[in-house]
Each structure stands twice: as structure tokens, then as C-alpha cells.
Amino acid sequence: MPCLPRRGSLSLLFATRKNYRRRTKNSYRANKRTSILPKNEKGRRSMNKEVAMELRRRLQIKGALRFENITKPLGLTVKEVDSDGFDGALVRRSSGIGGRILVKRGIRELGRKRFTTAHEIGHYLLHKDSDSMSCGAKEIENWTNFEINPEHAADEFASELLLPSAEMKGLIGTQWPSLKLVSDLAAEFEASLTATIRKYCDVATHSCAGVWVQESRVVWFSPSTSFPHWVKVGEELDAGLLDCNIPVEEMVEVRASEWIPAFSEEKEATLLQGCVRMPTYKGCLVLLWANRPLKHRTAEDELLEELDTDRFDSFRRERWPGKK
Questions:
Q1: Residue numbers in the chain where pLDDT is lower than 50
Q2: What is the pLDDT of residue 201?
Q3: Edge-to-edge strand order for the sheet containing 88-92?
Q4: CA dist 265 to 178, 239, 262, 323, Å?
Q5: How far apart are CA 229 and CA 1, in angstroms?
Q6: How far apart are CA 276 and CA 150, in angstroms?
Q7: Contacts of range 311-319, beta carbons closer than 8 Å, 24 or more positions apart
């Protein structure tokens, strides 16, 4: 049974979040940009993750989360309800302390249901100015929108609350990437495969990336810090590329150009690929691993290749790159 913190110590979580918002509000506005990765995903931990880490630390939680160990000291109750309008909702008490979390009973996957509950706890701790919030299926675990908004913040919080980075790293150790490893981690923390593969790539030391594919098109990808390549989001993949009949313990070799446009001329560059079909969500979850170093080609590299030093120099311009 975890040692419950004093009310004052839990209130520090709110104060910490408030101070962080004050410090970063202007910097976010000044540096707004569009990217496949959130601004704070790599290189430093976001405050949303910090709050989740601090909550687990104060409540002395290890391993798979038991929600009663968190909801009780926070004054929250969780109830499953029939709903067509939301997957999860938070109703805060008028006093601002405590409340009720409602979770759609019809969510079939346990991992998804747990993520929804953790997402609403995130709203409770991170967005205390809101009396109530309701979230649909497209707002929870939506990894295609990385604008700074409450839903993405709650997702980041939920990911760290369910899949603590430090414990994940300890379990991964020196094991090579595979969907079997990701599946084992998901079972260990009772999390969804989707959330687990993203967190795996977030903490992995190997050069790898998790990819979500629907209708033969890449919806999103989540790379490790050592995978600096751009996977072709939105483009249609070649027929037959995804063979999800391969055992999760195995990875098959594919040409890097099948996934990374920058390697279209690199016939020898390869990746290892694992794939699992997810019929409930009508898609495939893919793990890519660059088991051999791939030469990183930036947009600047490709531009330089177009330059012909014999016909284009600082003294005599006969043609511009890309012009006939």
C-alpha cells in the first residue's frame, strides 16, 4: 500500500504546472511551428511528463498502475457509463477539489480504457480551471496533432503515468528492437500497443521508429532520438510491403526507400521491419529498425547534388538548380 502524500504535497503539482505555464507561454508563441514531432518531444522532458513522474514518485507507485492508488488521494472516482458522445469525461466538484471520471463502457481494449482514464486524470491535474471536460475517440491518443493544446498535454501525461520512462529503460536493457519486446512491455504495464510503441521509441537507444498505417497510408510515425529520418507520412505504401503474418519475434529486411523518400536512390540501404495488424482500429502497427547505420541525407544535401560546378558558380550562372 503506497504511503499517501499530504494534501499540501499534492497541491505542489498544481503550483508547479502553473509556474511552468507562466515561464513558457511567451516562448511557445514566439517559436510556433508545424512539425510531425511535438516541440518538447525529444531532448527534454515536457512538464506534462514531469507532473506524471512526480505523482508516481510521491505515491511510491512502481510497475503497472492501479488507479485506486491515485484516484483516492486525489479525491476522484472512476465510473464506466454507456455513452455515444464521449470516450472519457471529467466532472470536477464545485469546490475544485476532487470529482468524477466517466469512461465509456463500450471501449473494448483494456489498454485503451486505461489510457482514457489516465488522460482524464491528466486533465484534472493540468487544467484545473476547467469544471468539466469530455473527450471523444479522436481526441484521446491522437498523435497526429502536436499543437500545444489540452488534449495533447493530457496524452503526454497519460503516457508517462502508465509507462514510466525510467522503468521502461530498465526493462528494455540491451535487448534489440522487436514487436515481441513492445508487446511484452505493453503486457507488463497493462497499456495499449500503440501507446507502448511510442514510449518505447521515446526511450530506446537503438535507431528505430514506430509507424501507424491505415488504408496503406502512413498516419503518423514516432522516431527514437537516433532515427533522424523522415518517414513518408500521407503517402501510399507499395502493395505487399506490410506482411503482418510474420511472427512478432521476427523482423524482415526491406529497402529503406520503401519508407524514407530521401533514400530513393540508395538501393543498398535497408531497414528491418516488424508488423502487427490491429483489426479493431482498421490499421497496422509497424516497428522499423535501422540495424545498420543509414547515411542521413538532408534537404540541403539533395540540393547540393543538383548543383553542377561546371555550369553554375559564383561568377557565371548558366542555370539554376532544378531549372532546365
A1: 1-8, 14-45, 299, 302-303, 305-306, 308, 310-324
A2: 96
A3: 76-81, 99-104, 88-92, 132-135
A4: 27, 20, 8, 20
A5: 45
A6: 30
A7: none
Burial (0-12, 13-18, 19+ Cβ within 10 Å), 199: buried
CA–CA distance, 148 with 145 (Å, rounded to integer):
9
Domain boundaries, the chain: 7-162, 177-300
Rounded CA-CA distance 131/129 in Å is 6
Question: Whole-angstrom Cα distance, residue 146 to residue 143?
Answer: 7
Q: What is the pTM of this model?
A: 0.76
Residue 99, strand partner residues = 76, 92
Evaluate whether 307 touches 321 at the Cβ level (below 8 Å): yes
Q: Enter the DSSP assignment of 176.
A: P
pLDDT (0 to 100) of residue 209? 96
DSSP 148: S
With residues binned 3-state (H G I as helix, E B as strand, rest as coil), the percentages for the chain, rounded to 5, are: 35, 20, 45
